[in-house]
Amino acid sequence: MSKNPVATIVALLGAAFLAGAAPVPGVPEAAALWAGREGKIVPVPVQDVRFEAGFWGPKMRVHKDRTIPHSWRYMEHDIRSLRKAAGEKTDGPFNNTWGEANLYKFIETIAHSLGMFPDAGLEKQVDEVVDLIRRAQRANGYSHVFIINEGKPDWDPEFLDGSHDGYVLGHLIEAAIEYHANTGKRALLDIACKAADEAYEHFLGPKGVPGFCGHAELEMALVELSRATGRTRYVELARAFVEWRGRRMVKPVGATPRAYFQDAVPLRQQRNLDGHAVRSTFFATGVTDLALATGDADHRLAAGRFWDSVTLRRMTITGSTGPRQEHEAFGEDHELPDDGYHGSCAACGLVDFAHRMFLLEGQADPADVLERVLYNAVLHGISLDGTDSYYQNPLSDAGHPRYNSWVCCPPNLSRTVFQVGRYACASGGHDVFFNLYVAGTVRASLEDGPVVLKVGTGYPWEGKVRITVAPGPARRFAINLRRPGWCETAALKVNGEAVAPLRTTDRGYFRLEREWRGHDVIELDMEMPVRLVEAHPLIKDGVGKVAVQRGPLIHGFEALDNLGKAAVELGEDPRLQVGERADLLGGVRVVTGQDADGKPVMAVPFYAMANREKTAQEVWVRQRGMKPGDAWWEGRLYRPAHKITVRSVAPGPTQKDGR
Ligand SMILES: [Zn+2]
Questions:
Q1: Which of 57, 239, 304, 580 is deepest in the core (most CB within 10 A)?
Q2: Regions of the chain with pLDDT less than 50
Q3: Cα(641) to centroid of ligand 1, in Å?
């Protein structure tokens, strides 16, 4: 045993596990950690999904054309700090402890964008920053320029909870992986590997000191880096970070409770996701990624407990989490106030957690949550024109202007939007999985080679999806179409012939296995009525109220559409209808109906709220005569409410008059 018994035990445990999990001795092939999971499900690379018109293609255009140019001005502190660390003479102000993470999230965003929209000028701009990062890096590989500029030691043990070393390095690694994948350039990846190697030496080397960064992020990035480079030592380090938490190895900053940085109890004793919601969801994602990489049963169980704690007890109807302003934290179970904090970055974190949970379990349920978060909480965080953002996303708002400090959230939201292709599709063995329905072309790798599938759909405005098999020799494989949680009635046809009876697999998909030929056509038609939804009775602000949902989209009421009052009371029979409004909010379908006095009311998709003049907003509203259902809740947080009274016609009358 060395001077550092815990480090030794964790390293030995990790090495033993990896020895069993990674069959390739020495340096395995790149992506061996995915490839080693034969028959398991892997995501379709972002580069293998091409978007066309439809819902997401134009959104990505906005992030490319508007958000990226707009963001550069907010990177000045960080670039100046890099110059200083690189030894250039420069005057402040300089960045804070977490600032660089924004720059790296921004570079990751640009990397995704370059993969979709090549742009030599933009690439050159990034290359210049990459060169600065290289010159700012300490000779030993340590790369956090805030600490370098402060003249502090690497991974300063007096400051590990607050310094954000690992958080920043994690985002540097993720940016490097994506920049390499999209441009073929290795320089940033080499910087990231050198920095990760320094971290390995610092924590797990011969003179290793146990510890971890108080803001989780590095764990999942290290697992990704291991997949990208084939070096299992990065998984070993991620494993050590996860195992060390809860063992009081890091000093809290000031009076910060240890739960804030997931250090209250060791992993195996953690039942819930607690503390800072972003740190917490990132931590859970890292744990899940480790379970994916190593097959560790304890990590898998912990991931499941964390998943249940969020999705069954601590998630709003829009998929946001973290209601408490103090410490930006999770609350108790069912503590989901309408005016809760619900930070945008926590929503991005939940998307990644959900994605890893889908890959781990192969079930449609996590993908269902992913869809809820993405179409509601995530998209709400950034304005429709891509140049304003919300840090907080309450469900009830008196009309706050957008909070445009352009800190952690905007580049996080952009990189999440650019990864929709990765979240949408996956493959494993002979199965292709469609988790999100996006218009475009997908190239999915199966055991016996790739298949190309073209998707046409007006989703999320309508539930029709048409998938065409690209020309090529006949092949036997299975196509899995996720049956969304909101979908009660659906029809499926292959080459015009109905699939009957239509069954949903145990995993939650419509599965079509056959010998596919070029030009074969699948048509999925999901009925998409308007639903009124009720909340679990323990969610206090939902008691006696309903929310409007259509397909995956939660809707809300804005005062300026409803005679100056967002807190409408729907009529007993609100006569809900769907109307197409090409003129409104970038083109949306709205839900119209009647209030308790027979006056017209209108709800717009939650993601598009707060994009016009300052106005009050409500998601949960009263309905005259509404009685909560008395059926068992079966662990769910939200369910359709007394849907008998809801008349829905889709699509409804087109209203041309702009309001
Ligand atoms: Zn944020």
A1: 239
A2: 1-36, 38, 644-659
A3: 33
